[in-house]
C-alpha cells in the first residue's frame, strides 16, 4: 500500500456542504445548524451522503430506522466487518462538527485507503446512525440502541414525536414511515459479533486536548447517561384574579425541582472530589404558556450523567426525596418517568492499542481520556469491541453554533482513523 493521503480540502468542503442542509439561522455565535432526524434537511443530507458513497464505489444498505451502511467489500467478505461511523443529526442551534466529522471523516478514510491501493481483508463499513440526538423522540442513540437490542422495537415505534407542531398521534412509527423507512424494527438488531470492531471519530466536545496542545484523544471509557421526565400538575387560572395564597403554580414547583437537581449534583461532586457527575434540565414546557395565565402543567426533561452509575442513582434518589416534599408543600402532583438509564461503556484494549500504533506512525501525541458526552459507540459496545478517536475543538465548545474544529485537526483525526481501520481490517 502507498502512503495514506487524506484529501483535507475535499473533506472540509464536504463538511461545509453538509452544514448547508439546515434551516438558515443567523446567530451572533456563527451559523447555527439544526438538523432534526427525519426532517427534510436530514433526508437531503442522507441522500447526498449516499450519492457520495456510491460515487466512491461503495454499496449502500438502509435499515427500517434509517441506519445507513456504506460498505467496502473485503477480500474475505464472509469475515465480520470492521465499522466506523457517527451521526449527522444536530440539535437545534448546534454547530457543524458534532457527529459529522465521524461520518465524513469515515468516508474520507475509506476513500483514502482505496486510493492508496489498500485491499481490506475484512470488509469496512461506514455507518450513519439514526438520531443520536434525543431532540425528536426524547431518547438519544435511537439507531444504535436498536442495533444493540437495548430498546425494544415496539417501544421504539411508540416513541412520541416531540417536534414542535407535530400532529397528535405522531410517533416514530408514523414519522419513519412517512420519511420512507418501512418494515419492522425487529430487523434492525445486529447479532453480537456482527462486527469485529467499531471505531468512531468525534470532536472532543470538551477543552482538555486543546488545553494540553494534543491533537488526538483515545477514549477509554464513556460516561453513563440517563434521562428522566417530570410532569408537574398544579392548578392554573387568571394571573390577576387568582390570589397568591390560593395558587398551586406548576412552574414554581418545577423551579424547585430544577434547583434540587443542581444542588444534589454539586453535592455529589463535593463528596467525590471530582466533576464526574453532571445534571441538566434542558427543556421546560409550560402549559398553557400565556403571560397572564398561572402555569397549570409543566414538563421537564432531565439529563444526568456520571462515570459511576451507582452515584448517578444516588443523586436521583436525593432528588426524588425533594420532589415528594415539593409536591406536598405546594399541593401539586409530580410524576417521574425514566426515559433511559444506561451503563457506561469501556473501550477494547486491542482497538485502543491499534489507535496508539497509528498515532505513533503519524508522530501525533495523544492522551487517553474519558468521554463525558455519550455516543453511538456506547451502544455499539454491546455487540462488538469499540474505541473512539477524539480531536480537539475550540475552547471545548459543542452543541452551540460556534463549535469549531480546525481543518488540520480534522485531517489528523481522519488519518488516525484510516490507519486504525487498515490495521483492524487486516486482522
Ligand atoms: C450527545 O450528543 C450527548 O448529549 O452527549
Ligand atoms: Mn451531540
Ligand atoms: Mn455527537
Ligand atoms: Mn453525542
From TrEMBL:
Cofactor note: Binds 2 Zn(2+) ions per subunit.
Species this chain originates from: Granulicella pectinivorans
InterPro entries recorded: Amidase_Cbmase, Bact_exopeptidase_dim_dom, Peptidase_M20, Peptidase_M20_dimer
Highest taxon in the source lineage: Bacteria
Chain sites annotated for binding Zn(2+) 1: 87, 98, 202
Cofactor(s) required for function per UniProt: Mn(2+); Zn(2+)
UniProt-listed PANTHER family: ALLANTOATE DEIMINASE-RELATED
GO molecular function: hydrolase activity, acting on carbon-nitrogen (but not peptide) bonds, in linear amidines; metal ion binding
This protein's UniProt keywords: Hydrolase, Manganese, Metal-binding, Zinc
Keyword set includes Manganese: yes
Any Pfam family matching the protein: M20_dimer
Family in the record: Belongs to the peptidase M20 family.
Keyword Hydrolase in record: yes
Every Peptidase M20 dimerisation domain range: 226-327
Residues the record lists as binding Zn(2+) 2: 98, 133, 399
Subunit structure: Homodimer.
Protein known as: N-carbamoyl-L-amino-acid hydrolase
Amino acid at each position: 500500500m502507498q502512503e495514506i493521503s487524506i484529501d483535507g480540502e475535499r473533506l472540509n468542503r464536504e463538511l461545509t456542504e453538509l452544514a448547508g442542509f439546515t434551516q438558515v439561522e443567523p446567530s451572533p455565535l456563527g451559523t447555527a445548524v439544526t438538523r432534526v432526524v427525519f426532517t427534510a434537511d436530514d433526508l437531503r443530507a442522507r441522500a447526498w451522503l449516499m450519492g457520495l458513497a456510491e460515487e466512491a464505489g461503495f454499496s449502500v444498505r438502509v435499515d427500517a430506522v434509517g441506519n445507513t451502511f456504506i460498505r467496502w467489500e473485503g477480500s474475505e467478505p464472509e469475515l465480520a466487518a470492521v465499522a466506523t461511523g457517527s451521526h449527522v443529526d444536530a440539535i437545534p442551534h448546534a454547530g457543524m462538527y458534532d457527529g459529522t466529522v465521524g461520518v465524513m471523516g469515515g468516508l474520507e478514510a475509506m476513500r483514502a485507503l482505496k486510493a492508496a491501493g489498500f485491499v481490506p481483508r475484512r470488509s469496512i463499513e461506514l455507518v450513519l446512525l439514526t438520531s443520536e440526538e434525543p431532540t425528536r423522540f426524547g431518547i438519544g442513540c435511537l439507531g444504535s440502541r436498536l442495533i444493540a437490542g437495548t430498546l425494544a422495537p415496539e417501544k421504539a415505534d411508540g416513541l412520541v414525536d416531540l417536534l414542535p407542531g407535530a400532529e397528535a398521534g405522531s410517533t416514530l412509527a408514523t414519522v419513519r414511515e412517512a420519511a420512507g423507512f418501512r418494515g419492522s424494527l425487529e430487523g434492525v438488531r445486529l447479532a453480537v459479533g456482527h462486527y469485529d470492531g467499531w471505531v468512531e471519530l468525534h470532536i472532543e466536545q470538551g477543552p482538555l486536548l486543546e488545553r494540553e496542545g494534543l491533537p488526538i484523544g483515545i477514549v477509554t471509557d464513556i460516561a453513563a447517561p440517563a434521562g428522566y421526565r417530570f410532569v408537574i400538575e398544579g392548578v392554573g387560572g387568571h394571573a390577576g384574579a387568582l390570589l397568591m395564597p390560593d395558587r398551586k403554580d406548576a412552574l414554581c414547583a418545577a423551579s424547585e425541582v430544577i434547583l434540587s437537581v443542581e444542588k444534589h449534583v454539586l453535592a455529589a461532586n463535593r463528596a467525590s472530589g471530582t466533576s464526574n457527575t453532571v445534571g441538566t434540565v434542558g427543556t421546560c414546557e409550560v402549559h398553557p404558556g400565556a403571560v397572564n395565565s398561572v402555569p397549570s402543567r409543566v414538563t421537564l426533561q432531565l439529563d444526568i450523567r456520571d462515570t459511576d452509575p451507582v452515584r448517578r442513582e444516588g443523586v436521583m434518589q436525593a432528588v426524588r426525596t425533594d420532589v415528594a416534599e415539593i409536591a406536598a408543600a405546594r399541593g401539586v402532583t409530580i410524576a417521574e418517568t425514566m426515559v433511559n438509564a444506561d451503563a457506561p461503556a469501556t473501550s477494547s484494549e486491542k482497538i485502543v492499542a491499534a489507535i496508539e500504533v497509528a498515532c505513533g506512525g503519524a508522530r501525533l501525541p495523544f492522551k487517553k481520556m474519558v468521554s463525558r458526552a455519550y455516543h453511538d459507540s456506547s451502544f455499539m459496545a454491546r455487540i462488538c469491541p469499540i474505541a473512539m478517536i477524539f480531536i480537539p475543538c475550540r475552547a471545548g465548545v459543542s452543541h452551540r453554533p460556534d463549535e469549531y474544529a480546525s481543518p488540520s485537526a480534522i485531517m489528523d483525526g481522519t488519518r488516525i482513523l484510516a490507519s486504525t481501520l487498515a490495521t483492524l481490517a487486516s486482522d
